[in-house]
């Protein structure tokens, strides 16, 4: 075991995967001599050469489309998208080609492409550098989507993603790049928890708090704070958001009967909506209260000075915990007003 | 053998269809071309008849496809009549171990690559998204997204370079695709990495109803040199010129020269697809003018002039074409739709817990009909 930042842990994961399999190569913008804008690919060019650490032209669709061709040829490309908001030009290649080629060819062509995306906000970045696009990819059949929350997972799940014969969208939270943690670099993948398995980050009995990525740390803080009020929160780090490990989720919901989901992506048709719909379908009789989402607002990602109002913080999470426990809560009013309440006009101009 | 770096015109409008490299004129007369001639020096009457045969069969498959669609047996068909020389001539220049990325209209390319009768119809019938295993004939599934495959060919070609192999990748796309970002990005990547890839732009004058003048004010082949890629603008209805130009391009890529670009100037005689009505956007005279440039009639005239096109040969080709037509029809009509549960197959290469749950639920739902199906003697 060794203490590593998440960025270094991912770097070591890449290094191991490339050393273990000559078909693994990485491509992206500025990943060679510069070592990536976050230095995640630092040193790989020296070790593996320019045919395996490929500085590409500045064209995201080009990077992704070239990766498709390389996969056709039997390579296992690891693509770095420089920032979350830059993945959109590659979206067509990801959803129409990467995701579908295995299905289209009835299993004859595999797309073992790992798409690394430095992801989400909280680092005071410029516009287009703090996006949370995960729901777009979760909605696309053929992709696996994972989000890491700590250096150990970042290392192992990356190696698992690269080893997977399916394409994996791998979200790495930017605001955790410099967070340190214990990492076992030699962990055998066969001994590691599978990439699709959720992790109970903290056991609890009153409320199940579902989350992933950097938001896990906020959820843990909320759980610690709630403890002072005698509330026991179980925090589940989903790790994989397609597929979701509903076995672990359901076991927790059956125990607590109360669910809060938090993510920093916008709410509408987001991962939280999917989680709550599925939990409601499968665990309705175990629920003591309507599940609640604590998410980013349905707004474009705000300017850096305002982002703290967008990112779900400890207090908004605790407010939701109060709500599912039917405790008095002061931070937010009713989500939906009835027509009689006189507030209907605020909802869809009263036409809802 | 060397070749001019470019015959690209510099000032002609993109709509000038006669400023092209040509070896056989519309009347079938053989035209000397100092740069192209050496690339087809081995093409004797036998070889020319073989090119004619392929084009005739491709035309017959195409005719059958249109008929099957009109009869309700296919949901859609994208005809290639008029483009046989471009497709057969260029595809013949590849080696079988080269890897080709076609668009959805490349019936002749897939034929040359080794597609069988069912491969031409089952996707349009809606039985599968693709039928052949790409690795069986080193040809990717026909691409529907415009221009996306140009990047796949480049990535594949980069892999060839990394492997130290001497194969070549090919990408087929139309004139409309040259407006797409992906095709332009593909040329940037190909040039930067000196990838052994040949781009074949089938300029058939129309992208559904949009004329090429909407896509280009300058000959499309003229763009490639701007990316550092040598190009050639060739008569796409002249199978000999297509073969010669493509042999040059493939050789250029195979011998370390990097990418090459061929613009084949041709015409789509029919609609974009069977859903389309070209009479709404182009006039009869234009179609008639192109009928005079028919690629099959041209080679027939050349062979006749050389006394190398006998009635026996014509009958053989007609018979073989009819056999292909019958095989295509039979493959279409005898298609058996797969069991419903197979819609879940091959979404992932490895088990996916979420999809496994849905598959289980749908299987249970289907099982509910088991008794009914058994009584009717069928299965869902």
From TrEMBL, chain A:
EC number per UniProt: 1.2.4.-
Residue numbers spanned by region Disordered: 328-352
Residues covered by the Transketolase-like pyrimidine-binding domain: 4-179
Species of the source: Microbacterium terregens
Cofactor (UniProt): thiamine diphosphate
Record carries keyword Secreted: no
Keywords: Oxidoreductase, Thiamine pyrophosphate
CDD domains tied to this protein: TPP_PYR_E1-PDHc-beta_like (cd07036)
Molecular function GO terms recorded: oxidoreductase activity
Name under which the protein is recorded: Alpha-ketoacid dehydrogenase subunit beta
Highest taxon above the source species: Bacteria
Stretches of the chain forming a coiled coil according to its record: none
Automatic annotation (TrEMBL), chain B:
Keyword field: Oxidoreductase, Pyruvate, Thiamine pyrophosphate
Cofactor names: thiamine diphosphate
A Pfam family the protein falls into: E1_dh
Boundaries of every Dehydrogenase E1 component domain copy: 53-322
InterPro entries membership: Alpha-ketoacid_DH_E1_comp, DH_E1, PdhA/BkdA, THDP-binding
The protein's name in its UniProt record: Pyruvate dehydrogenase (Acetyl-transferring) E1 component subunit alpha
Organism of derivation: Microbacterium terregens
